[in-house]
Write a structure and sequence with these properties.
228 residues; alpha/beta; eight-stranded parallel sheet; 9 helices; 8 strands; 18% strand; isomerase; metal-binding; RibuloseP-bd_barrel
């Protein structure tokens, strides 16, 4: 599974979003954090901004919906131009139906788990998904410190993916940087959301390349990757 680096525009300059999207040449996806001030204590952006971003960049959009009632709202983000839409397990009323609807509209369906939410109850849902997101901070704010205690959960999730023979991407989001990305890759992640580590750098595109190199090297020696 190829390493993917998804810069998070939550750490970008919101007054220059089109320029900031173009500043991360070489990124696989542009990660868009949608917060509703209900599911998480912050308010960011919505459908009109996603529509504008989709027109402004050729990099596909990876929308992470931190909101209540994603069953109602998620399909609108596909229509707005998102190539991947992530809803939270804790917020979705009917996650299988929602994942199928997202896929039917032409996007990749992804489900996110907050740090305290275990993966095991969702094992049977994994075949319905294209990606699973393990939050490595509490969702709601950028710039938080990485939670090392999430590494065993990443490993267990990778084991479940392998157990069922799934082509499921495993994404991590929160505190991903040059200091933490190798541990995430060794544990089983292959898609990495990085905000401050990219947009806080002098050269965001170079930061993307550096993170990719680190993750690829760590993946190359990881037991889970060698087993494939």
């Amino acid at each position: 599974m190829a390493v993917q680096i998804n810069p998070s525009i939550l750490s970008a300059d919101f007054a220059r979003l089109a320029d900031e999207a173009r500043a991360v040449q070489g990124a696989d996806w542009l990660h868009v954090d949608v917060m509703d001030n209900h599911f998480v204590p912050n308010l960011t952006l919505g459908v009109p901004i996603v529509e504008s971003l989709a027109r402004a960049t050729d990099t596909p959009l990876d929308c992470h919906l931190m909101m209540t009632d994603p069953d109602r709202w998620a399909p609108q983000y596909v229509e707005a131009g998102a190539g991947s839409v992530t809803f939270h397990a804790e917020a979705a009323a009917a996650p299988v139906r929602l994942a199928r609807e997202i896929r039917a509209k032409g996007a990749r369906a992804s489900m996110a788990l907050k740090p305290a939410t275990p993966i095991e109850p969702y094992e049977d849902l994994l075949p319905e998904l294209d990606m699973l997101l393990i939050m490595t901070v509490e969702p709601g704010f950028g710039g938080q410190a990485f939670l090392d205690i999430m590494l065993p959960k990443i490993r267990r999730t990778r084991e479940l993916i392998s157990k069922h023979g799934l082509e499921l991407w495993l994404q991590v989001d929160g505190g991903v940087s040059t200091a933490t990305i190798e541990r995430c890759a060794e544990a089983g992640a292959d898609v990495f959301v990085a905000g401050s580590a990219v947009y806080g750098a002098e050269d965001p595109a170079a930061a993307v390349r550096a993170l990719r190199t680190q993750a690829e090297e760590a993946t190359g020696t990881a037991g889970w990757a060698c087993a494939h």
